[in-house]
Structure formats: C-alpha cells, structure tokens
Amino acid sequence: MCTPGLDALPPNDGIWVEVDTSAQRLTLWQGEQQHWHCSVSTGEAGTGQREGSGQTPLGWHVIRAAIGGDQPRGAVFRGRRPTGEVYDEALGAEHPERDWILTRILWLSGLEPGFNRGGEVDTQRRYIYFHGAPADRPMGVAASHGCIRMRDDDLLRLFDEARPGTPVWLHD
C-alpha cells in the first residue's frame, strides 16, 4: 500500500479526520493542530478492506456525502433514507435485531485504488459511514459491523465541521 500524505490529498479547508481503530478514537484536526476528539466504535471483526467482512477499512478516504442535515436527532435511516421514525427505547425494544443508523450519515469513499477503492475493497460500495448509534451502545470498543459509530452529540459536531471532500485517515 502506498498511503498518500496529507499534502497529496484534494484541497480542503484544512480540516481532516483521523480514526485510530486500536484506540477507538476519532480526532478532528485543523492542519497540524488537534481540534477535538471523542470515543467511537469501529468494526467488531477488526480492520480490513474486503466487502462482506464486517471490518472497518483502513487508509485515506474522503467524505463522499453528508446525509440527514434536515432530520431530527435520533432520526432512523435505512438505505441512507430517513424512515420517519425517531429512535427511542421502545422502538429499540420492538426491533432488537436492527443495526441502528441514527441522526446523520457521513458516507466515506476510499482514495487508494486497489486498497480501499475499486473491486472487492471499495469502501463506498461497502456503505461505510460515520453514523449515530443508540445511547446504550458502547463507545471505546470495537462493536460495529464495519462503520464508525458515534454518540449523537459528537456526530452532530463532526457533521457541522466536516463536509463532503474532507479527508479521513483510518488506521490501527
């Protein structure tokens, strides 16, 4: 893998996102300065690139799309579309089998052909997102199906500060 440096990425406003999967930690950077950080939950199956693996992909990515800016906190998404539901404990108890995608979606696209872009390793086609999760889901531990789960407050902050085109570096 030939991971590009930050200077080789598309131009942006200096904001970029780092996700350290071994620490289960997201850091938002402004250039070389840490702006803020939070705990997240990445793939329970670890890290990896392959479609169907349930793993969180590695390498440089970019936020492809920001979805749900007009939705309320706790809005439920299926297939990247709001269902009209707003998550609460009763809804969670009614559908315990669901992998809840809540509040907002920041959809990722890989930037490294053959590693996280194209073929069976394409992050975008794997539908890997930053997304909200119910408050009872643990953060700081790997427990997702490959996405990066976040608390609503942290996700809303990220959604406000990052936008399509923002670079994202996922590493372990």
From TrEMBL:
One of its GO terms (cellular component) is extracellular region. It comes from the Bacteria. One of its GO terms (molecular function) is glycosyltransferase activity. Transmembrane segments: none annotated. The active site is at residues 131, 147. Pathway: Cell wall biogenesis; peptidoglycan biosynthesis. Residues 15-171 form the L,D-TPase catalytic domain. One of its GO terms (biological process) is regulation of cell shape. Gene3D superfamilies: L,D-transpeptidase catalytic domain-like. Keywords: Cell shape, Cell wall biogenesis/degradation, Glycosyltransferase, Hydrolase, Peptidoglycan synthesis, Transferase. PANTHER family: L,D-TRANSPEPTIDASE, L,D-TRANSPEPTIDASE ERFK_SRFK-RELATED. Belongs to the YkuD family. This is Peptidase.
